[in-house]
Amino acid sequence: MIKNIIVTDINGNITGTTYPKRAKGLIKSGRAVEVDEQTIRLVASVYTDAFSDDMEEYTMANIIDFKARGFKLVEDCASNKGTRLIVTENEESVECFEIGEGGAATKISRKIDVEKDTDYVFRFAVRSDFVKGEAESLVSIYFDEEGDGYTYPLDREDKNRFKPVICKKTPDGLLRVFELPFNSGDATSATILISVHDMTAWIYPAKEKAAYDELEDIEYDKWRQEEFHQVEKVLGDIGGTLGETLNGIGGFVSEVSGKITKAVSDVIKSATSDSKEEDKKEEEAKEEEAPAAEEEKAEEVKEEAPEEEKKSGIVIEGPEDKAE
Q: pTM of the entire structure?
């Protein structure tokens, strides 16, 4: 195959030549536009060389853009949690893959055809939350079997392991664009494997760099520091609020306890007072009943005495009997 397609920059200056198939790939991915049958014009900035001094070769490398529909969950990963979604990003509908939902370890992959001994770039955008603990993410591009190829560690708690070409701060987290270079060697196919562990990531097709110009540039480590301080502040606020709440609850409980104690004491005092009053009334009633009972008893004794005298045969004469 002959490099017979002329390549120009955005100003029309010739930057080199490329193969017809590569030219079609650049046009299809939106990285270039067709000028005529023998010429294409780049619409994106030139990539930084990652392999050699052959800038033209790397610049013209085939771009493999991420497409969510081409990726599937890896069957041998039991904890897989991922969903293809249509979301609104910068007022546009975009297909993305949400992976690692709830922090589970998740793998997605896609197999692609490649030409032998050819340079490629796998390009994608990823948005992620604050990474902590044992969380990590990486991309592997391998050929015959896993491990036979390239590995790009993206996230770890301590640092950003592979530098993105774009790193921006958004209201929803950190947005990065990665361009991962690889050479196919003797292979005619390759597998792209994206893995996350203990974190959630949203993976999108990357846009032209100019589309991200309005977003704030930020270094990965600085963003992590800001997020860490924000987490500390939130936890501090929660702790302060919780302390105030507990103090308030403690004061309320103490107040209620005091009221309950006083109420119980008042009830006991009232019951004791009522009991004493009842006892006093009973004593007074007994004192009033005692003389009447004694008189009644004396009358009964007096009435019964003559009968007893008769039964015993003894007659006691009174003054009236003697007079007779």
A: 0.55
